[in-house]
Amino acid sequence: MRPSFYRDSVTLMRLSRDLEQMAGVTAAAAMMATPQNRALLAQAGLLSREGEAAGNADLVVAVIADCVESADAAREAIERMLSPRVSPAAAGVAAPRTLDGALRVLSDANLALISVPGLYAGAEAARALGAGLHVMLFSDNVPLETEVELKRMARERNLLMMGPDCGTAIVDGVGLGFANAVPRGRIGLAAASGTGLQEVTSLIAREGEGVSQALGVGGRDLSEAVGGSMMLRALELLASDAATDVVCVIGKPPAPAVAHRLADALKRVGKPCVVHFPRGALPRDGHLHVAATLEDAARAAVAVARGRRPAPVEFTLPAGEIERLIDSAARGPGGAQRFVRGVYAGGTLAQEAAALLDAELADVSPSLTGDGAAHRITDLGADQFTLGRPHPMIDGHVRRDWILREGRDAATAVVLLDVVLGTATAPDPAGEVLPAIRAIRQLRHVAVVASVCGTDADTPSRAAQVASLRAAGALVMDSNAQASRLAAAIARRAGAAAR
Amino acid sequence: MLPGGGPRVVNVGLELFATELARRAVPVTHVDWRPPAGGDARLVALLERLDGRRDVIERANAEALARLTDGLPMLVDCRPAREALELADRTVLHAGPPIAWSRMCEPMRAAVLCAVRYEGWAANDDAAAALVTADRVRLAPCHHYRAVGPMTGMITPSMPVFVVENHAFGTRAHATINEGLGKVLRFGANDPSVIARLNWMATEAGPLLGAGLRAGGGIDLRALMAQALRMSDEMHQRNVAASSLLTRALMPGVAKVGGRHHAVARLAEFIAGNDQFFLNIAMAAGKALADPAGGVADATLVTAMARNGTDFGIRVSALGDRWLTAPVNTPDGLYFPGFGPTDANPDMGDSAIVETIGLGGFAMAASPAVARFVGAGGMAAALALTGEMREIVAGEHPHFRIPTLDERGSPVGIDVRRVVETGVTPLINTGIAGRKAGVGQVGAGVVRAPLGCFTAALEALAG
User: Fold this and answer.
1) CA-to-CA distance for B155 and A151, rounded, in angstroms?
2) Helix locations, A361-421, DSSP H
3) Are residues B8 and A173, on separate chains, in Cβ contact within 8 Å?
4) Structural contact between residues B201 and B160, judged by C-beta atoms closer than 8 angstroms
5) What is the side-by-side strand order in the sheet with B160-166?
6) Which residue from A102, A75, A147, A396 is spatially nearest to B11, judged by alpha carbons?
7) pLDDT at B413 over 80
8) H-only helix segments in B24-80
9) How high is the ipTM of this complex?
C-alpha cells in the first residue's frame, strides 16, 4: 500500500497486466483504493488487511505469486514501474498539479479536457467553466444533478459543456479524446454519442466530404432532467457557424418534452438538417432528413451538402456479391450454430447492431451485457466491464478473451465485431483481436464479420486494418450497419439450413 | 469557433490524451492531477465551501498579494530592543508561535537561560531557570513585538535590533544582529564567549551601525534584495551576495560616524567574516513586507510562518494575529563532519518569513548552488522546486525576479486553499541546529511546513 499515491487508471491497468505476465505470478492488481475498487479486490481475493484500511487516495498493489522468489521479483518490478520516469528534456519542468497551475503555463487556454474519476470530475469541470474554458468531460459516473448544474453554468457563460461521458469531439479541426482523422469541411455535427460520432464523421470523410465541427454533448443530454441543454446550444453554434452548410444530429432517444424542444430548435437552424435517433424517436418533419442508421446519416449529410436527394443504402457491394458472401459463410457452421454474437468496443455501435439484428431476427437479447442464450451483443465499453479496467478502445485485451469465449460457444454461427480507430485508441486495434479471430476460425466454422470505424488518414490506416482482418478470414464491411445486416443474414441462412 | 484559432487545451486526467494532442502540435498542458486534499472528503467539502465564494476570496487575495509585494522596506536604524520594541524589563522574546517553557526544546531552553544571564537577571543557569519557571521572566514570541529572530530567536531589552521601515505602508519590523557561526545564542550555545560577543554588539557594534545608518539616510532593501537574487542568493541559506551589497551600502556611513577607527575595523572584520550577516535583515524586511498583508477579510494568503522547535505556526491574512499550529518537522539535509540526522533538532526559527515573501526555498531557481542541499540537486532540481511552489501561491513577485526563469517573478502569496488541495507544502531552506544545547549548527538543508497548519487554517476560514 502506498499512502497518498495517485496514478491514473490506464497506468495502473498496464501495471496490473505487466505484473500478471511475470513468471510465477498468478494474480495481480494495482488500483486506487476507492470503496468500489476495494470491493473488486476483495472479490478477487486480493485485498489484504492493509488494503482494507486504505482510502481513496492510496494505491494498493496486490500480487499472488507461487513462491517467495516470484513475489520478490514482482515487488521489484512494482518499484521500478512506479518510480518516476525522468526524461532529460522534462527534468526540472514539473507538470502543474492543478487546473489553476496549468492556466499559468498555458494562460490563453480555451478548452479543458477532463478525464479524472467521476467523483472528482464535477469540481474540476466547474473550475474550468469558472475560468472561462470550454469543457469536454470524458469522465463518466458523474451525478445527474452535477451535469445539470455544469450545463447551467456553461450556458450562463456562453461556453460548451461537452459531456459528461463525452468520448469524441472535433473542434476547429482538432480531434479531442477518441477522434478520427477527417478533413475539414462543410458538415457540422452534434452528437449525444461518442462512437456514433466517430462512425458518421469517418463515413463522411470516406465519401469525400469534411467536417466543420463535431460537438459531443454527453449521453444524458436529451434526458428530461438535462433537457437537451447542450444539444440546443450546439445547434445554435452550428447555425451561426459560417463554415457549416449542413447540420447532422446523432441522438439518443430523447425524453418526450425534449423531443419537442429539439424539433423546434432544428427548425430554427436555418440550414438543412439530417438527424439520426436510434429506433427513430424523433417526429418526422418536412425540413428534416431522418436517417435510420449512422451510415445513412453520414450518406444523407453528404448528399444534402452536394444538393442531392439522400438515399438509404443497405449494402454497398452488389446484391450478387452479398448473396455469395452469405451463402459461403452460412454453409460452414454446423447445425447447432445459429446465433450472432457481437463483441463491441463502441457503445453506440453495439446499440445500433442490436437494433438492426432485432429488426431481422427473433430472440435478440435486449441487454448489451452478454445475457441471453440466442443472439446477443456485448458492449465491453459498458460500465460493468470497465470498472477498474481500461476501456476496450484503449486496451483491447479484454476483447480478445470475449471473442474467444463467444467463438467457442457451440451455438455461435457469427461473431460480429467493431474495430474503432482514431486518436488515443490502441496502437493496433485489429492486431489485438487477430489472434482470437484466427483461433476461433481454426477451431471450427464460425463466420467473423467486422467493420472498421476510421479513415485511411488514421494511424494505423483503415485500409491496413481491413487488410489484416481479411487476411485472418474476417468479412469486413463498409459500415457497422452493413456488418450487422450481413451477420443477421448469415445467421438466418444458417438457422434455416439447420431446420 | 474557438477564439485564437483552435483549441488550446488543458488536459486533466488521462495523460494519453495530452500526448496525442502534443504529437499533433496542438497546444496542450497536462495536469499531473491527484485527488484533491489527498482524497480527504472532509477537506474537500471545506474547499468546496470556500469555492462557493471564490470571487470574494480572489478579490481579497489580490488585495493581500498587492500589500505583500508592493512594500518598500528601508533599513533605517539599529537601536536597543528596549527602545525599538518598547520591550519591558525581564522579557525574553523567542522564535515561533507562543510556547511555554515546559514545552521548549533543549536548545531553546539553553538560549533562554543564556539570554537571562546576559541581561544580568541571574548569575547562573540554575538561578535563571528558577526565574523562568517562577514566571518572573516573561517569554513571548518575537512576532508579537514587530520582530523576528533566527533559530531560537532570542531578543532581550539590551540587544540592538535593526529597524526596517516599510515606506509604502508605514510599518516597522526588527531583527537582531546576526552573530555569525560557531557558538552562538541563536543555536542555543550558552557560554562566556557568547555573552562576550553579545556585549560587544550592545556596546559597540549596535550603536555604530545605528549611527552609520542614520548618517547614510537608510538603505533601500527592496532594490538590494532584488539585486542579490540576481546574484544567486535566495536570502535564506545563501546571503553572501546580499551581505556584500549591504556592506558596500553600509560602510561609508559607518566610516563617517566611526570616530574610533579600531571599532569600525572590528565591525568591518565581523561582517566580512559572516556570509549570513544579511539573513537577519532579510527577515526584518520580510516581516515589514508581510505585516501589511494581514487582516484582509476573506484573504486566504499566509502572512507569517514561524517555528519554535516544537510547533510550526502560520498566520493567515483573514485570520489576523491568530496562530494555526502543528508539530514541526525535522529538516533534511547535509551535515557538518561528525554530525548526522540523529543530531538534528526539529525545525526552528522565524526565518521562514523569507519564504513567506517569496524568497528562500521559493526562489530556489535563482540559487542552484543551494539546491544541492535537497539531494540530487543542481539546476533541474532548483527549477522543479520553484515550479512546485508556484503551484501553491497567488502570484509572482513584481520586484523579485529570477534570471534563470527568464525574469519571471518568484512565487509569492502562499494560498492555504492551494496547499490543502495539492498537498504541496511550503519548502523552507534552513540551517539545522544540534538537538543538544550548546552544540550549535550541525548542518543545513530543507524542511517542509507541516500540512496540519494549513488544514487548521482551512477549517478556520471555511467555518
Assistant:
1) 59
2) 383-386, 397-408
3) no
4) yes
5) B171-176, B160-166, B73-80, B219-220
6) A102
7) yes
8) 41-51, 54-69
9) 0.85
Please give the backbone phi and psi of residue A288, each rounded to the nearest 5 degrees, phi first: -100, 145
- Pairing outcome for strands A412-420 and A339-344: parallel
Q: Is B135 left (phi over 0), alpha (psi -120 to 50) or beta?
A: left
How confident is residue A281, by pLDDT bands cut at 50, 70 and 90? low
Number of Cβ within a 10 Å radius of residue A396: 24
Contact A172 B51 (CB under 8 A): no
Q: What does the block give as the cell for B63?
A: 488585495
- What is the pairing mode between strands A161-162 and A134-137? parallel
Cβ of A93 within 8 Å of Cβ of B383? The answer is: yes
Query: Among B306, B311, B304, B305, which residue's Cα sits nearest to residue B346?
Result: B311
Count the alpha carbons within 13 Å of B301 in the hemisphere toward its beta carbon: 34
Q: How many CB atoms lie within 10 A of CB B53?
A: 12
Burial class (CB in 10 A: 0-12, 13-18, 19+), A478: middle
How, if at all, do strands A211-216 and A174-177 pair?
unpaired
Q: Pick the closest to residue A178 from A194, A165, A160 (CA basis).
A: A194
Give the global pTM. 0.82
CA distance B27 to A171: 13
| 3-state secondary structure at position A199 | helix
Residues of chain B found within 8 Å of residue A106, distances taken between Cβ atoms: 8-10, 27-29
What pLDDT digit, counting tens, does each position of A123-181 carry?
Answer: 999 999 999 999 999 998 899 999 999 999 999 999 999 999 999 999 999 999 999 99
Q: Is A96 close to B391, i.e. CB distance below 8 A?
A: yes
Q: Which of B7, B10, B12 sits opposite A116 (nearest CB)?
A: B12
**C-alpha cell, B184:** 552562538
Determine the Cα–Cα distance for residues B186 and B128; give it in Å rounded to an integer.
Answer: 18
Contact B9 A116 (CB under 8 A): no
| pLDDT at B309 > cutoff 80 | yes
CA distances from A156 to A166, A237, B422 (A): 21, 15, 29
What's the CA gap between B348 and B51, in Å, rounded?
34
Interface test with B, best of A97, A136, A142, A176 (most B CBs within 10 A): A97
pLDDT at A90: 41
B430, β-bridge pairs:
B445
